Amino acid sequence: MLNIKDDSRKVVKGDTFVALKGKRLDGHDYIEDAIKNGAVKVVCERGSYAVETIKVEDTKKYLDDYLVSNYSSYFKDIKLIGVTGTNGKTSTCFITYQILNKLNIKTCYIGTIGCYIDKDVIELNNTTPDILELYNLLINAKEKGCKVVVMEVSSHSLVQERIKGLEFNLCAFTNLTLDHLDYHKSMEEYLHAKLKIFNYLKDDGKIVINVDDKYSKYFMERRSVTLGSNDSDYKIIDYRLSNNNTFIKFIVNNDIYSVTTNLIGKFNIYNYFTSLALVNSLGINIKDIINVTDRVYAPKGRSEIIKYNKSIIVIDYAHTPDAVSKIINSFREVTSGNIITILGCGGDRDKSKRSIMGSISTNLSDIVIFTNDNPRTEKEDLIISDILKGVNKYNYTIIYDRKSAIKYGISLLNKDDTLLILGKGHEDYQILGNNKIHLSDYEEVITNIKK
Question: pTM, whole model, 2 decimals?
Answer without folding.
Answer: 0.92
